[in-house]
Amino acid sequence: MIFWIGILVAVALAFFAIRMGFYETWAILFNVVISIYLSVFVGPIVARIPAIANTSFSNALAVIATAIAAFLILQSITYILMTSQFSISFPKVLDVIGAGFLGFLGGLLLWSFVNFLIYLTPIPQSDFAEKFGYNSQFRQANVSVISWWCDLVGSIVSNRHDGTTTAEQTINGLFEDIVRKTKNAKAEQAPTGQSSEPDEPKTKIRPEDQLGPPPEIDFDHL
In this structure, is residue 217 part of a structural domain? Predict the structure, then answer.
């Protein structure tokens, strides 16, 4: 079910891209890809901030905050220097088919990124999420999409070598970290989950013991 939702999202963005045109669609897709690339590699560093480092949602918050900040900056620069200053005309076929194709790819990438953020939270570990489709196979499919785009950017902006950490390794490290934080959170909540009722006395107190010892009778005054 969740797979078909992603297809619908990609188709909807493809129609939206056709209305914008190839030039603006290409600029937005470029900014989205760079923003996701930065969020994957810079997000884990932001997640180490002491204020949020020990929370279960720290990785998701760090990744989404990095992605939004990077996109807003890049999109502002693109609008000021490029899209608002001039436009480039393309043939009608390219302006429709090309923009629709880029919009569809961007929709799949955004949908994979949204699900990637959900996997960075304890939500997919619930039974309801698994029934909805959040299983290990779907997670790997989303990781593959994001890793392909991030490794493509990495191969362009840096000199790749054997010791370079790939996007998939970074993402898997985030997943392992969220599992560890979830286990630590459950361990900390375990003592508080115990019953707060007072413990029953080990020895049963008889009613006559509660009334105290019987009064002494002075037989000399009788």
Answer: no
Q: What is the pTM of this model?
A: 0.78
Sign, Cα dihedral of 24, 29, 34, 39: positive
Domain membership flag for residue 202 = no
In a domain, 215, yes or no: no
pLDDT in tens, 94-143: 889 999 999 999 999 999 999 999 988 888 877 777 777 788 888 899 99
Count structural domains, the chain.
1
Nearest to 119 by CA among 170, 174, 68, 168: 174
| Sequence-ordered list of residues with C-beta below 8 angstroms from that of 68, at least 6 positions apart, any chain | 35
Domain of 72 in residue numbering reads as: 2-187
Could you give the dihedral angle defined by the CA atoms of residues 93, 99, 102 and 107, in that order, rounded to the nearest 10 degrees?
-130
Residue 125 has what DSSP assignment?
G
